[in-house]
Design goal:
The protein has helices at 3-24, 27-31, 41-60, 82-101, 121-145; strands at residues 111-112, 119-120. By secondary structure, the protein is mostly helical. The chain has one domain (3-145): Four Helix Bundle (Hemerythrin (Met), subunit A). It is globular, with a radius of gyration of 16 Å. The mean pLDDT is 96.
Length: 154
């Protein structure tokens, strides 16, 4: 198995886990700040989707969509519902996965430009999988804060 194929499989699994954990949260849990002051899940789901789209753009040679310069991403009003943010995440991850699947596995070492320099494609794919799992862990924590200790991945 090529390193690009392995990275892609890891990303695919991260997306499935993320979607299942997002589905397990209620609309209220997604839209409100845990403990009254933490980041709202809707905002870090938006960030995850935006970074998916930024990486996708870099992979296909397009200009990435802009994020905030300073501070944390905040979901726009039109995405502030469970259905809207879930659909936005799904469309971002579908677009990202489609772009990676269209690349020959022999191109795993192709350099992709990024904000911290050029990186091999396989490394970028591993990074975006890790980024999705990082924020999935936040979704898991919100579940736990609300008494849900179930593993929703399976």
């Amino acid at each position: 198995m090529s390193v690009l194929t392995a990275a892609l499989k890891s990303l695919e699994q991260a997306v499935v886990f993320f979607e299942k954990d997002l589905e397990a949260l209620s609309e209220e849990q997604i839209l409100n700040a845990p403990m009254g002051s933490a980041r709202k899940p809707v905002d870090f789901v938006y960030e995850t989707a935006l970074v998916n789209l930024q990486i996708r753009a870099r992979i296909v040679g397009e200009t990435p969509p802009q994020g905030v310069e300073d501070g944390w991403e905040v979901a726009p009003a039109e995405l502030c519902s469970k259905a809207a943010i879930a659909a936005y995440y799904k469309s971002s991850s579908d677009a990202l996965l489609e772009s990676i699947r269209s690349i020959p596995v022999t191109d795993g070492d192709r350099l992709i430009p990024g904000s911290r320099g050029d990186r091999p494609l396989f490394e970028v794919v591993y990074f975006i999988g890790m980024h999705n799992m990082y924020h999935d862990a936040q979704l898991n924590y919100v579940q736990e804060l609300n008494g849900d200790l179930e593993m929703h991945w399976f």
